[in-house]
Specification:
This is Putative ABC-type iron transport system protein. The chain has 599 residues and is mainly α.
Length: 599
């Protein structure tokens, strides 16, 4: 009897595992373990391994043998201040400063749009997220165009041309401009999260506080703020992780004056072939991100309830600002002008300058757009005559398209399995694994993939230096977007539709193709658009992985930055912005019935 019962349970288990969603779950689990968990394990292993670079300091040691040399060198050696402590402190300063400014801007804008009668709220809501479509380092390039001084030689910026005096170093380079430029890009995270939370807070709770004699400030601190605390925590975590792992802005505004953060120090270490120290610094970034999430969860976990919606209807009352609403609208428009219009205008002006630093009308030229080598500049032709830029633009487009398609497929499969096995351990594990790439700072993730794919893995050849590796890492990094949108879309589809088709004898592939995908297409296209935009403007993730043959526009622009060619920097950056906006419009026209992006 016991043997028969055991055999029955085994058959039932086998039958359950043979269902399509279970088979897909197994495949996805193996894939994500290989692409997310294995690289992290490899990164940790490499920090305990003697690298070829280390043999100059460890005579007699064989490359590949065990060592704690990197930990001693980075954390307690005579070079530790330059290698770790100064970049670590600089990262904390810029990350916390930018996060506080992001929350201030995002929360203020969310309150204005959700809780006040500011004019044209729908238009304002759309315009506020426009900076997210631009590369994070566009503001840094524009800042340098305006405030660059003569400390590094070369041309000075617009400030010098207008006022005839050099701006101080602390305004041109370093912590302050890095914090400001990062905040004016990443405030969108705080705005989106907090505006969604504020819409669910019943204004009757605040009215009850007013009746009890609480001031408006006390209503906010005692009622509204505690209820949106989870959203505030999410905004802090998402912003901090993005900012602390950002490479482009600190590289543009910090590296020229040797103001290193952890991402730029990782780039410098690996660029000088000191990969062991670079991997250890990347591991520090990962630990910082995980620790920050854990602290946020512990802080939120001490409260028992954050309920804002119950069986009763939620009433959201807007605050009448009176005539001041037009002043508030003007301030919002001014912010958008400063974060979008002014940076693009400065880069356009730079791209039209014959001689850098001279902004007189007589100095304008179209050479850096259409000119050939030797006409105005003996070394550099214009954008549309420059094979390096055109090749990089094509690489950017095909990389973004490949990543969007790949993440669309993977995101749909993850969403399907998570929703169809909802409540099971497999569902929770897969959902967590698909989100894990988000917590890895981008430059650290790039370092992880160098460590893993720089050598063959079984029958798979080494991928370092190939276009396939760029597609792979960008797809994995963007998977959290498409997996979340896939889960959200599939939760809205009643499984009875699929069950009805199964009773008609329709196979799983046909059911998915004819029923599930069409119904979930809106959410899937939204996630794919986010992946496309994110890949087009990505620099931090791929800066360690690109080669001359796989260069994309973002990496070419950074190369021109190090070569100090400001006109081509401006022109190539504007080309990238035009491509992002153009493809965004094209997506919306082709899928006009889908809710794409942040609409």
């Amino acid at each position: 009897m016991t043997a028969r019962a055991g055999a029955g349970r085994l058959r039932r288990f086998g039958a359950a595992m043979m269902t399509p969603e279970r088979l897909v779950a197994v495949v996805l689990a193996v894939l994500l373990a290989f692409l997310v968990l294995a690289p992290l394990a490899e990164l940790i292993r490499e920090t305990f391994t003697v690298q070829p670079y280390d043999r100059a300091y460890l005579p007699g040691e064989e490359a590949g043998s065990f060592t704690t040399f990197h930990y001693e060198r980075v954390f307690s050696g005579r070079m530790s201040a330059a290698l770790f402590y100064k970049p670590f402190v600089n990262s904390l300063i810029t990350a916390f400063g930018a996060t506080v400014l992001c929350l201030t801007l995002g929360a203020s804008l969310a309150w204005v749009v959700v809780r006040t009668n500011v004019p044209f709220r729908e238009a304002v809501n759309t315009m506020i997220v426009v900076p997210y479509m631009l590369p994070s380092w566009v503001m840094a390039l524009a800042w340098l165009t305006f405030f660059k001084n003569d400390r590094l030689g070369g041309s000075s910026g617009v400030f010098v041309y207008l006022f005839g005096m050099q701006p101080p170093d602390w305004l041109a380079f370093g912590a302050l401009p890095i914090v400001i430029c990062l905040a004016f890009h990443y405030y969108v995270y705080a705005y989106l999260i907090l505006s969604g939370a504020l819409t669910t807070v019943d204004s009757q709770l605040e009215e009850a506080g007013a009746i009890a004699g609480l001031s408006r400030f006390r209503q906010f601190t005692a009622i509204t703020l505690p209820l949106v605390l989870p959203a505030l925590g999410s905004a802090v975590v998402m912003t901090f992780i993005r900012v602390v792992g950002s490479f482009g802005t600190p590289a543009v505004l910090g590296m020229p004056v040797r103001y290193f953060t952890l991402p730029t120090q990782i780039y410098a270490a690996i660029g000088s072939r000191n990969v062991g120290d670079g991997y250890l610094l990347a591991l520090v970034l990962v630990v910082m991100a995980v620790l920050f999430i854990w602290i946020n969860q512990r802080m939120i976990g001490v409260r028992k309830s954050f309920v804002t919606m119950s069986g009763k209807g939620v009433r959201s009352k807007t605050i009448d600002l009176g005539p001041a609403r037009w002043l508030v609208l003007g301030l919002v428009v001014l912010l958008l002008a400063f974060t979008v219009i002014l940076p693009i205008g400065l880069l356009l002006l730079e791209s039209l300058s014959r001689t850098a630093g001279d902004y007189d009308l007589s100095n304008l030229t179209l050479h850096y757009w259409f000119g050939e080598r030797g006409e105005v500049n003996a070394l550099y032709p214009g954008v549309f005559q420059n094979p390096q830029i055109l090749g990089a633009a094509w690489n950017s487009i095909r990389l973004a398209l490949c990543v969007a398609l790949l993440t669309g497929v993977l995101g749909f499969l993850v969403g399907y399995v998570v929703v169809r096995t909802r409540g099971s351990m497999a569902s929770k594990t897969l959902e967590t694994a698909a989100f894990l790439p988000y917590i890895f700072p981008s430059v650290a993730f790039g370092a992880i993939y160098i460590g893993m794919f720089s050598k063959p893995i079984g029958p798979m050849p080494a991928l370092y230096g190939t276009f396939a590796l760029l597609v792979l890492i960008a797809a994995v990094k963007n998977l959290p977007y498409t997996s979340r949108t896939g889960i959200a879309a599939l939760l809205q589809i009643d499984k009875s539709l699929e069950e009805a088709a199964r009773t008609q004898g329709i196979g799983w592939v046909a059911r998915v193709r004819r029923i599930v995908i069409p119904l979930a297409s809106n959410g899937l296209m939204s996630g794919m658009l986010l992946s496309f935009i994110g890949t087009m403007r990505e620099l931090s993730l791929i800066i360690l992985l690109v080669t001359p043959s796989t260069a994309v526009l973002a990496s070419v622009i950074y190369t021109y930055q190090t070569d100090d060619v400001p006109q081509l920097i401006g022109a190539a950056t504007l080309l990238l912005v035009l491509l992002i906006i153009g493809f965004n419009i094209l997506f919306r026209l082709v899928f006009r019935n889908a809710k794409l992006g942040f609409a």
